[in-house]
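Changelog-adjacent note: as of this version, every example in the card shows the full chain rather than a window. The one below runs 391 residues end to end.
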Amino acid sequence: MKKKYLIIFGLLLSASILFTTQSTLALGGVDQPNSEPISTNTTEQPVPTTDNSTLNLSLEDALKLMETGNRELKLADSKLQILEKQSQQALARHNAGIAVVDEESRKDRDLNHKRAQWTLDNAKHDRDNQIKALKAQITNEYQNVLSLQQQAENLKLQLANLDTVMNQVNLQIDLGLKIPSDLYTYKAQKSMLEAAQKADMNSINNSMITLKQDLGIDINRNVVLTSSPIPYTKFDESDIDTKIAKAIQNHYDILRYKQDIEITQIEYDIVFYYSGLMTANQVQLSIEDKKATLENLPVTLEVGFRTAYNNLKTIENTIEADKLTVEADQITIKVMERNIEVGNSSSLEMIALQNKLLNDQNTLQQNINAYMTAATNFKNSLDNHLQEQSQ
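Full-length structure tokens:
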């Protein structure tokens, strides 16, 4: 009898536990009153703050900001730290005086520290050139935004001029001097100008985002460029042949390849001694390739320098043509002013001439920006090699 009661009690207990478990699981999916969610995160993460203030940015400040905020330079600096450490480790193994017992220990004694130092020296040199190139790039991006902003102002002025013309035409239609279809051409022009204005604003936004990214500025922060467009200054091409010849003679890549060949020759000797001719042949092929590149390097460099110089002269000629076009526009406007004064022309005819002058002035400034960037890059390459000569 007791056994029967025990069985019944066990069944009731099991049912009670099952019911309680199901109820608990069911309640887990429903928000319970007077209950708080359980957080698995025991530490509160700081919320990043956004600087919503307006940044007034001069070109000089932008170039300073580049040296601390540019991601490419940060990566280059991180790479230099790694290479510094590797060079120190290789030099320590070289100075440790470990007995040479195999190919690897021989490389530690005679090769690896030289290769590590060579790699580090090249990285430092390349970073110096990278800074110069980035400064030219940032200047170009900054000036490009200024040029686009000026173009936006020009389009705004042209739309205002067109509205003036359309108002005059509407007045003449009201007076019966013109018919409504005479407005069609002006409406089409207005539509084109409005489309150009929208496209220009998109270009400004995209160019500003690129500039902010290169400077390490939050892309959502409002930035106002405060510097003026750079003036046109001709590149000093006096004695250009001598400058190019010296730049080739003292080019860093010549030193780079000569040292690389010397170090690789050491590697060949080690590999030949420990691994034999078959394995060393691959290293020998590498040496021959580097020797061929070094032999052809002066010609390759001269082609590069001459091409850059000729491109610079091409832009210079384009600028001279642009300046003549702007001067012609200004002369035409002066003639029109006289005709308006004596009643031979309408003031409405002046609007088209003014619009043309605005467009031609903007084209001139864009070509000046391109020229100044090309001139800076060309000058940097020549100056860099001339400095190598004095070191």
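Structural remarks: The chain has ten helices and two strands.
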